[in-house]
Write a structure and sequence with these properties.
Blueprint lengths: L8 E2 L5 H10 L11 H12 L3 E11 L7 E8 L1 H9 L21 H8 L8 E3 L8 E3 L12 H36 L2 H11 L2 E2 L7 H13 L2
Antiparallel strand pairs: 1-6, 2-3, 3-4, 4-5
């Protein structure tokens, strides 16, 4: 029988070179689970302040450094609340420093008034295609009978739909960049080191994780009478 004694160290006890090796070996420790959950929640909360209800089960993304990467989501839009939210930058109630490039649609004031007063409800929504990562926006064009035969309204609704597409694209870009920023942070040296300390891993002096050695030691201690 041969007995081997080996010193193990907590992450904070390692030399700097060993720490760097440990970090590099576990670079993606923070992104091997649903790390995007909090980013989703923040996005949903921001959208809610301006009348956009996002379905968390229908948020998608692929990232971050390849062609075809992107994001998408499905949502319902409360137009009167959205208009008011843009005017008053209501998203700042949740994220005071957030800058969003959102502006009001350039449509006839009479049509805008109908929308604000909820007299013209077109049930707008943001949709996500089955393929690809981007968003679309569309209106329900089943106008009330009293508005039929008014080409001005129909023309203005086309403008409104184009405006909604830009709103959806702006929010989707914000979503994707938020996810990218969170991913990049979670893979920084600082974040990885924090995780290795929090989980309380043990390491050999050269920065190698000693999980296997701990398991063997524990197994032998049980088997040895």
């Amino acid at each position: 029988m041969k007995i081997i004694q080996l010193n193990l160290y907590e992450f904070a006890e390692l030399e700097e070179t060993a720490k760097k090796k440990a970090i590099e070996a576990d670079r993606y420790i923070n992104v091997d689970y649903s790390w995007w959950d909090f980013t989703y929640d923040d996005f949903i909360s921001i959208c809610e302040t301006i009348g956009i209800t996002v379905d968390k089960k229908n948020i998608f993304f692929r990232g971050f450094y390849s062609q075809g990467d992107g994001s998408g989501f499905v949502a319902e839009i409360g137009l009167p609340v959205l208009l008011d939210g843009i005017v008053n930058q209501k998203w700042r109630e949740y994220a005071p420093k957030l800058e969003l490039d959102l502006s009001l649609p350039e449509i006839d004031g009479r049509v805008l008034k109908l929308i604000r007063e909820s007299k013209l409800d077109t049930a707008p929504q943001i949709t996500h295609p089955h393929r690809g990562y981007y968003v679309k926006a569309e209106l329900n064009e089943n106008l009330p009978h009293s508005f039929h035969g008014y080409p001005l309204i129909e023309k203005q609704l086309d403008v409104l739909e184009d405006w909604l597409i830009k709103i959806a694209e702006t929010l989707n870009h914000f979503l994707y960049k938020s996810l990218e920023s969170e991913y990049e942070y979670q893979t920084t040296d600082q974040a990885v080191a924090g995780a290795l300390e929090a989980i309380e891993y043990w390491f050999t002096s050269d920065g190698k994780k000693a999980t296997r050695l701990e398991s063997l030691s524990f197994k032998n201690s049980i088997e040895t009478p």
